[in-house]
Amino acid sequence: MTSGPVPVVLAFSNLNPLYQGYFSTEAWVAELSSALGGCFTESVEVVISYSDETRIGRILIQTPISALACSPVPGPEGVDLSPLVPVGQALARYRDAVAAARDVRVASFRVGVRLVRGVELCDLYVGGQFPPDGTTFSPCLGLRGNEICLGDRHEALTSLPWPQGEHREILSACLGG
What we know:
single chain; alpha+beta; seven-stranded mixed beta sheet; three-stranded antiparallel beta sheet; 4 helices; 32% strand
């Protein structure tokens, strides 16, 4: 883990070149790089995407759990997400900078972390009052590309209850269990 800036690699999916340029603004990427330095042991891949079908934009850090020093902490009742707050705040500030300077619609992009472990993918999103500031998380998460909600979509959580059955196994696998 480093306390200085970490390399940030931007990847775009279904985002036009104008918006790719917005998100590639050097000053904002440098600020994101500095803010993430205390939480990652290697370079950070930030995937910025937009779905024409759902009209939802996403800004996700895609990382193996082993590279994330600010990891969620599994417990008997659920998962403590508070260690992810610095990551959530950094992504929220990045999103908000682009929205304020370039296009206010970017404020509606969901931000979060995609944990990757083998074939398992788990998306943990920031939540709370619009636009979320990264200090709390949504009860809705993506597991293998499918969204499940473990409470009211508008809740703001610092811990996530364990899902049932197969969903628990997937989330546990993403967390290194």
